Amino acid sequence: MPPRMQLNARQRQFLKGQAHDLEPIVHIGKNGLTDAVIAQLDCALEDHELLKAKVAKECPQKAKEIGDVAGPQLRCVVVQVIGRNLVLYRRHPKTPKIPLPTHT
Asked: Which pLDDT value is given to residue 4?
């Protein structure tokens, strides 16, 4: 299991721009962050690397709380939390789809 990656400010800003037009592909409902939702997020990150998730109004947890729990479990980076939306990123270990800017 690889360690969680860290993003610098430039990379984070780049990913925010990439995520701007994305539609949420995972919806977190009234049961909150369940094992099934974690599995769905894991599959989506494997397929897409960068995704938006939407937290329903009925969800007992706030989006930031979900990001704080899901990030370490999924070995991903919470790029941004805006309102009830989360942007998550996890680089694909073999074939990355999104080329991140360098650290310079």
From this structure: 61
Helices and strands counted in the chain (H then E): 3, 4
User: The pTM is what?
Assistant: 0.91
Sign of torsion over alpha carbons 44, 48, 99, 63 = negative
Q: Tell me the pairing of strands 26-28 and 50-55.
A: parallel
From the centroid of its chain, how far is CA 42? 9
CA distance 41 to 28: 10
pLDDT digits (tens, 9 = 90+) for 19-57: 999 999 999 999 999 999 999 999 999 999 999 999 999
Q: Measured between alpha carbons, how far is 22 from 65 in angstroms, rounded to an integer?
A: 22
